[in-house]
Amino acid sequence: MYSASEPTAFLTRLAAIVGASHLITDPADLAPCLTDWRGRYTGRALAAARPGSAAEVQAIVRECLAAGVAMVPQGGNTGLVGGATPDVGGRALVIQLARMNRVRSIDRVNHALVVEAGCALAQIQSAAEAVGRLFPLSLAAEGSCQIGGNLATNAGGVQVLRYGTMRDLTLGLEAVLPNGELWSGLTALRKNNTGYDLRHLLIGAEGTLGIITAAALKLFPLPAETVTGWLGVASPAAAIDLLSKTRMGFDAQLTAFELICPLSLQLVRRHFPHLPPPPSAPWHVLCEFSGSGEDNLRHKAENFLTARLRDGAISDGILAQTNAQRKNLWALRENISEAQKKEGISIKHDIALPTSRVAEFLERVEPLLTARFPDIRHVAFGHLGDGNLHFNVSMQNSAANARLLAREHEVNEIVYDLVHTLEGSISAEHGIGQLKREFLTRYKTPAQLAAMRAIKHALDPAGLMNPGKIFEAF
Ligand SMILES: Cc1cc2nc3c(=O)[nH]c(=O)nc-3n(C[C@H](O)[C@H](O)[C@H](O)COP(=O)(O)OP(=O)(O)OC[C@H]3O[C@@H](n4cnc5c(N)ncnc54)[C@H](O)[C@@H]3O)c2cc1C
After folding, report:
1. What is the mean pLDDT of the chain?
2. Which residues sit with their C-beta closer than 6 Å to ligand 1?
């Protein structure tokens, strides 16, 4: 651990590694990386270093280890649980991967590409599209979030139903471990059973087990045809029924199935009034079908939805006729988080449930919450196809909202206890970060917690890799 007079020497050594212009110490330049996207957490740091290669990341990690400085890996800083925000101690180093943004290679025949961790997700989607392939991870923050952050959070998004989460899309990884060694597992093999697979520990570890520097990822054929529909349904239960029927009818051609509550839509319409309104309905579903272009998918979708209109499964519906219409429908869904942010801070729950129990959760949670907080309002939306709900609660005026936030723990207990009872998870896709650490220990078994702690101690005995995330202390 360095003494009070040593930070300057430490920073000088870092500047020698990354170049002075890539070591951020000026408070104004540092500020954006010290606060999370929602503005819930603000920390302090010695500096932010921006390495340009895995070798530079290694050198930084070794300096931090020698000086006893905590490291906070940071990608696009769009995470929603405070995982990339340093604590308030001011003695950590933020390590930003943005300069490591090269697509190293694309193998069309193997349907794979190798990218550096700082590539923005949208950049990878475009690189794949340029060679007629699809990289299917897709989420509203895709212009800013980086693949390293997507891997570290095991991101989900809107196409998990068809293609899986980030974990399912990853063939190999390269990472700098907390001891400064480079772990090279950058193979693009579909099969490789050769002992423990560190890849799966690093994915979803939220930067607590090492710094991901590159990844080999799966590609898929680019769909030639996409059909997007906005449907009105009577209730979440009706949406679940419809999902089940749609899956049976379309199987892998169903690539997205999103549930949207009326308040979500109302907030988007308030803050993004230029977006055309969809048909009014008690609840909404945005679904998408994708195909090779030879299966007359539009015709099949039209027939299917006409039958559902007739049997009352849906009350109304439109299919996008142009790409512009499709984009507008998706914008209604993708701007929900932004619209909520504009309304002020809400208490967010990113939960997973067996899809068959999502409606039961919504029916049971509402009376439990209103009994304790009579004027509470909730925004419920999410990736119904994956049983993933974003269930966010707030009060209408800011004074009442501040009072609710002061009782966040009580709200969370109600929501998460019910999720646990229904055999769900308190984090579907955002991770634990700082936001949910106390609840992780509430629901994991002692054996699960002990195994997680043993892994952390084995890889990071000094506890310097993103401390205070997932667990308050390991
Ligand atoms: C509008 C909006 C919509 C969103 N929608 C979704 C969604 O649909 N699905 C979803 O899953 N998430 C969603 N998110 C959350 C967020 O975008 C994802 O968690 C994303 O994967 C974070 O990537 P990032 O690069 O911004 O990571 P950051 O926020 O920078 O970091 C997130 C975590 O990863 C760690 N980390 C970052 N880079 C590395 C690295 N190279 N090596 C090791 N650790 C690293 C950080 O330390 C931190 O713990 C959304 C966020 C916003 C703002």
Report:
1. 96
2. 37, 72-80, 83-84, 97, 117, 139-141, 145-146, 148-150, 152-153, 155-157, 206-207, 211-212, 337-338, 429-430, 433, 466, 469
CATH of domain 225-337: 3.30.70.2190
103-221 shares the fold of 7-96? no
CATH topology for the 344-431 domain: Alpha-Beta Plaits (3.30.70)
| Exposed / middle / buried, residue 195 (Cβ in 10 Å: 0-12, 13-18, 19+) | exposed
Among 53-57, 77-81, 278-282, where is mean pLDDT lowest?
278-282
Amino acid at 280: S
d(CA 350, CA 388): 7
pLDDT surpassing 80 at residue 75: yes
Enter the pTM of the model: 0.95
Residue of 145, 330, 437, 456 to test ligand 1 pocket, by largest number of atoms within 8 Å of CB? 145
pLDDT of residue 395: 92
Q: What is the pLDDT of residue 427?
A: 97
CATH of 7-96, one of 3.30.70.20, 1.10.287.3240, 3.40.50.12780, 3.30.43.10: 3.30.43.10
Yes or no: is domain 103-221 CATH 3.30.465.10? yes
CA 274 vs. chain centroid, Å, equals 27
**pLDDT above 50 (res 183):** yes
Cβ-contact 389, 354 below 8 angstroms: no
Probe target for ligand 1 pocket from 41, 74, 173, 349, with the most ligand atoms within 8 Å of CB: 74
